[in-house]
């Protein structure tokens, strides 16, 4: 009989790629989605799997509905990907962020503990928990120092996952995933914003892009590679926590430069700090300018993964280079 997996946040970037991956592995895939007027499941449609997944319309905060679902379906795997995942919004929406990202997790863990204790659980932890990094590169032993309400809320759920594993002997694992992107990335995140903004500039030379901190450095990988690590964690006999990343970092400015080169746009960076601009060397038109409104109250300046534990124990490694990822994102954007 097919194994059953529940994915919360199935309408998001990772949810969609994970659903496809598990369907290809023969799982029966169930998804949790909150009702929304705007969600048209474009990612599941793009991957051509909308009709292959079973969707439950339940908000992660509806703890009684979550409990009855967990009790009635007795899932083999539960992947908790639902979250308010945009760091930049988390200062203005700190309470909602905390409710979804922290209390939502306890709703699931507690239901599993009481009603389905052989279910294996995956928690979507994040490199944002390292925040003001205490060591570089970051691995499972690096101390945490979150820098946003998002990071703090995820640290709570990370430790709750560890606590339920240690207290109740549940199969709960956390993936501490570094930034991962794809053509299906949400439009607010910087990589998608850069690629779509530059494609808009290519189509209409009067459009330009406004960005915040160009010096921030991230370890960017491809979401399609990262969902495999989620499955590998639950496929193992022993639950554990794993850092997942590429082991390479680039600044936001470097990401822009690679995308500009791929689009064959000739440019130069001019000025410094808030006055920095990227200008076309063909006609002097503005391509990118820095805007204070995209800076954060507290920044995570650099993130760089040391994924050696996952390499060794899960046999997982990042397969897609940043250059290939950017090409993939550009191709998708230009085909729209
Ligand atoms: P995403 O595209 O923002 O997807 C998040 C999903 O959660 C959306 O489908 C959203 O649905 C759903 N959701 C939000 N609140 C909910 C609620 N109350 N009840 C039910 N569903 C709810 O994020 P992602 O990039 O796929 O990331 C997946 C997970 O990994 C998140 O937990 C994120 O924090 C974590 N993570 C991501 C990265 C990354 O670089 N992508 C790195 C580390 C960790 P709506 O459409 O209704 O908003
Ligand atoms: O793309 P971002 O918004 O991603 P961020 O904040 O690193 O968070 C993402 O990765 C985390 C894992 O490390 C996840 F947990 C989280 O859910 C999310 O998926 O911003 C990346 C960097 C930041 O330093 C930001 O200040 O880009 C900088 N940036 C500069 N200009 C910008 C912009 N970010 C955004 N979103 N928009 C800008 O205009």
Task: Write up this protein.
The chain is α/β, with parallel strands linked by helices. It has a domain of 222 residues: NAD(P)-binding Rossmann-like Domain (Rossmann fold). Helix content is 38%, strand content 18%. The protein is built from ten helices and 15 strands. It has a seven-stranded parallel sheet, sandwiched between helices. The radius of gyration is 20 Å and the shape is globular. The two termini are 40 Å apart.
Key features?
binds ligand G4F, 10 helices, 15 strands, Rossmann fold, 336 residues, alpha/beta, seven-stranded parallel sheet, single chain, binds NADP nicotinamide-adenine-dinucleotide phosphate, four-stranded mixed sheet
Shape: globular
User: N- to C-terminal separation?
Assistant: 40 Å
Low-pLDDT ranges: none
The count of helical stretches stands at: 10
Structural class: alpha/beta
Bound molecules: NADP nicotinamide-adenine-dinucleotide phosphate, ligand G4F
Biggest sheet: strand arrangement: 3-2-1-4-5-6-11
% residues in beta strands: 15-25%
The CATH topology assignment of the domain at 4-182 and 222-247 and 303-319 is Rossmann fold
Query: What is the name of the CATH architecture of the domain at 4-182 and 222-247 and 303-319?
Result: 3-Layer(aba) Sandwich
Helix content: 25-40%
Rounded radius of gyration (Å): 20 Å
Could you name the CATH homologous superfamily of the domain at 4-182 and 222-247 and 303-319? NAD(P)-binding Rossmann-like Domain
- Output the CATH class name of the domain at 4-182 and 222-247 and 303-319: Alpha Beta
């Amino acid at each position: 009989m097919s194994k059953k997996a529940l994915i919360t946040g199935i309408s998001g970037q990772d949810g969609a790629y994970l659903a496809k991956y598990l369907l290809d592995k023969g799982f029966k895939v169930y998804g949790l989605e909150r009702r929304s007027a705007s969600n048209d499941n474009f990612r599941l449609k793009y991957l051509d799997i909308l009709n292959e997944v079973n969707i439950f319309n339940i908000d992660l905060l509806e703890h009684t509905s979550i409990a009855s679902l967990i009790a009635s379906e007795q899932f083999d795997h539960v992947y908790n990907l639902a979250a308010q995942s945009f760091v930049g919004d988390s200062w203005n929406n700190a309470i909602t962020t905390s409710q979804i990202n922290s209390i939502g997790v306890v709703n699931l863990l507690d239901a599993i503990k009481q009603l389905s204790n052989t279910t294996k659980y995956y928690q979507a932890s994040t490199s944002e928990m390292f925040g003001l990094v205490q060591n570089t590169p970051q691995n499972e032993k690096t101390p945490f120092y979150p820098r946003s309400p998002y990071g703090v809320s995820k640290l709570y759920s990370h430790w709750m996952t560890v606590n339920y594993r240690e207290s109740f002997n549940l199969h709960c694992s956390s993936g501490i995933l570094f930034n991962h992107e794809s053509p299906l990335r949400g439009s607010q995140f910087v990589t998608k914003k850069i690629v779509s903004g530059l494609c808009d500039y290519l189509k209409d030379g009067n459009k330009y892009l406004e960005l915040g901190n160009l010096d921030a450095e991230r370890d960017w990988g491809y979401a399609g590679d990262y969902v495999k690590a989620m499955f590998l964690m639950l496929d193992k006999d022993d639950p554990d926590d794993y850092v997942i990343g590429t082991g390479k970092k680039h600044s936001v400015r470097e990401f822009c430069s690679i995308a500009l080169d791929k689009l064959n746009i000739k440019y130069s960076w001019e000025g410094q700090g808030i006055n920095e601009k990227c200008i076309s060397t063909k006609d002097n038109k503005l391509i990118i300018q820095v805007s204070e409104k995209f800076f954060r109250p507290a920044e995570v300046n650099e993130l760089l993964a040391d994924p050696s534990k996952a390499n060794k124990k899960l046999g997982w490694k990042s397969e897609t280079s940043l250059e290939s990822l950017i090409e993939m994102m550009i191709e998708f954007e230009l085909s729209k």
